[in-house]
Amino acid sequence: MKTLKLRIKDKHIKELNRLSGSVNFVWNYVNALCFEHLKRTGKYFSAYDLNQYTKGSGELLRLHSQTLQAINETHAKARKQFKKAKLNWRTNRPDAKRKTLGWIPFKKSAIKYLHSRKTGKKALKSKIKLSLSKGQKLLIDVFDSYNLSLYQINTLEIVQDSRNRWYACITVKDFPKQVSGKGSVGIDLGLKESATTSNGTKLIIKQTQKWANKLAVAQRAKNKKCVKAIHAKIKNTRLDLIHKFTTKLVKDNALIVVGDVKSRSFTTIGLTQQSV
Questions:
Q1: pTM (2 decimals)?
Q2: Domain ranges across the chain
């Protein structure tokens, strides 16, 4: 099983915000229903029990029946996992004190990959059709960096980040496997350089210092939008460096050995004892 995260084009934001509001409505209803049932009977509702209460509501909320079932299953699983009688409420109102990021789940029967097209030398854009309530469809365009035509889609969840950008998180079962190289390499973990290979390649993921001045200016100006953008830039740069480093290692080597390093060896006490 593998998960692909693809950016959705911004033209769908309005529709996705509305659908996420419907998902939040179902979640809050199920949350209140489970808590009241627990107070009366001392027993918890299962996902199967919740399906009986939400059955048929998809036509009014423009949600597929499988989406309703996915919400119920996620709620039951989360309540059991965190051992809580009632979970947090979900809301996407702009004036809410604790706004919840959007989330819309879809199961396999409600997902259909349509086609991909080239938008440049390497860039691809793919179109996916999602089933809503009876006869209603949602077509979304995603920036496809994986070429979805090579994968078999299993499930899909549309999620929102703090910058109001939407992503399609797609789980796939069958996917093309990469052929690794025949070399071997050793990796030494460190503090200044996160990792150093035996052939001299270094991984440095500390990026905050490069953006420190711009981040300080934005924080003093209380420009929340700019602060979020800078933090996102730092995070994405760090993830990109790690991804490129690890991908190159896997492609070029069949044997990868990581040094056995204990965190205590990097502490001041450990260094002092070693120097003495």
A1: 0.83
A2: 2-8+103-172, 14-82, 183-263
